[in-house]
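Cont'd.
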Amino acid sequence: MAKLFALALVLAGASLLAAQGNARSSAALPTALPPVSQTCPMHPDIVESKPGTCPLCKMNLVPVRLDASWMCPVHAVVIEQQAGTCRLCGRALVPVTVSLTWTCRGEVNAEFLEPGVCRDGSPRIGKRTLRPHGNHNPQHGGQFFMAPDTWHHLEGTLPRDRLFRLHLYDDYARVLPPAALTAMNARVITRQRFDAATRTTIEDEAFTLKPSKDGRSLEAAISRAALPAAMTVKVRFKPDTPEYRFDFTFRELTKEPAGATLVASRPTAKPRAAAAAATPATPVETAPAYTVPTEPLPGTMAELLADLGKRRDEVRALVQKGDFGAIWVPAFQAKDVAVALEPHVDHLAPQERSHAEPALADVVRTAWQLDAAGDTGNAEEVGKAFTLFTDAVSRLTVAFSATPP
Amino acid sequence: MRSVTAPACIGLLLAGVWLLPIEAHKPITSPYTFAEDVAPILRERCATCHVAGGPAPMPLTTAEETVPWGESIRLELVAGHMPPWSAMSGGKRLPHAEGLTARELNVLLTWVTGGTPPGDAKPAPPAPAPVEWPLGTPDLTLPLPEVSVAADKGEVTEVIGLPLEAVAHRPLRAVDLRPGTRSLVRSARITVQSASRPSSDTETLIGLWLPGDQPVALPRGAAFAMPADAQIVVTLRLKKTWEHEREAMTDRSTLALYFAGSGAPVQRLAVTGQTLSEGVRVLSLYPVPAATGATVTLDATLPNGAARRLIEFAPRPGWDRRYTFDPPFELPAGTRLQASAPDGIVLNVVPLPAR
């Protein structure tokens, strides 16, 4: 999902490979700077070693120095040179990919690729800038999600009857090396039920996911599944990390896109070289990027309310289909409608207005919640956000409907 | 944040530690900029606390200060934790509501996730200076004793009983607090208690001070009584921010009293589920502290059968708040009240004259 608008939701892009062996052991400032790479201003997943144009949007690439650091998963202000804990909250730092630039005090827009001296004679100040995610497109025709650790990404496919396959990527949507997959503990659950007495989910049928022959994915031979087939993957990326849940729904067997170009495996060289040299391939399928709607929204209150209901129904349909990765589109359209409705509260009676104002804000807030939950593919989180979203839409509709426009 | 990054940045650079991330190469997708769109919202809605020396540890008055906190801002806004206003809806108007509007929320979230463009760099206007006493010159100010938080402590709660003679025993229409050290005082619970029977059942809450909150006075015709055996008890909660976590700090706040000329005494009415035996005028309400953490609703069924929700809110630990209705509203005798909080809600009411 190449939704540019939501790219930066993923600020905490972690780097498992760095954690596994590429993290620097010294906190000292590197004496040799990372090489200059070229990236697209609009598609940060595009990283080339030479100047040129973006294969996605044809914009001129811009220079960037990429490096690895450690960041607090909550406080993005905390970026350190080494692994450790956040000095604000004590959480374990996660490895991230950053770009290096230098600036001068008091010059907000000053950006340099090298250290040096400012106009006032003071040394330029080094900055580490988190690299946002850019490519959430499925590469094998499946469903693509981001893990809650915000570094792993995965894609589930049902390439043929009785075969489930899980493709795993890093934060640049590059295929993880076989060694990383071997360390994972994952299973796909095809039948499960919720036991109300114990309030636990009982897995009636689950299959361990094992590395495929080529080592590029995890897969399991599963029992015949009637379509649409819903299944849940639970995966622990490393023994000491939490188990994450991802819910997939396949309405049909997945098809490998024609002419698919597999993304190159991440080199196991030094992180700086890896970051600069890796050249992700052009995604095969590109979802439409979100932009601020260019079409004018309906003008009247009644039309806006009707449009809001329509977006709510679109979100519901995607939730029911299990197409979580696409939820953000109608959810964001709904919040745009809510913003457009806001001036109309002036027409409401005080009683209704007191209900409408918080409901409007709640539509906006829950739309962003839906976006974040949809990215991670956790049906439970999506369900919670959807419940809050529909509740806010309902409250809004009731409040506005009580007063004739 | 400021004390760590800005002044020390060059030194830290020399030490080999880079701390200040600015999104230099993040794609700019936000049509909103800090200068044009974000700064006015932060200034209007957040600067009371998020200002240098304020109770929040991170000032948010300039782009340089705000950009590094973008992800934290996103998390807090999406979770509904900030601003710390917990009323979700209500049939009655609540003055001083601090929730962001739909547009404000959307602008901030779009900006923090869309590359945090700074816009035209221009000097930020100075943050508005805090008004010393928003309700006007107090009738009486009472300096509270100095309270210290040792270097190895993060938080101290001090219960301060004010001498009987000091509170003058005159009915009150409002109380307010001026923190001595703004970055330290997190809340103050101000009650009137019987000196001879110190029990929560007999106390009347007359003020819940929170950073950034506007004090609210009772409407004309109502007053908090100060009987002869009463005293004012201030429960002061001091908590250091991470900026000062290894410092010894002190506070000396000041309590302000505003006397009421005359008025019907405000009564405390604890509600779980009950029918009113007499009509009341409802001024404000607050949950008992145990109710924090869950959504609380208060519904009324009038004698004619009409049902309506009076308020719905989600109290948060550490952010105890009193909700004041403007204007107050009347509930006739025979009204059935139902509070969802297991330990109930406390209403500040004035009985209606018998008809």
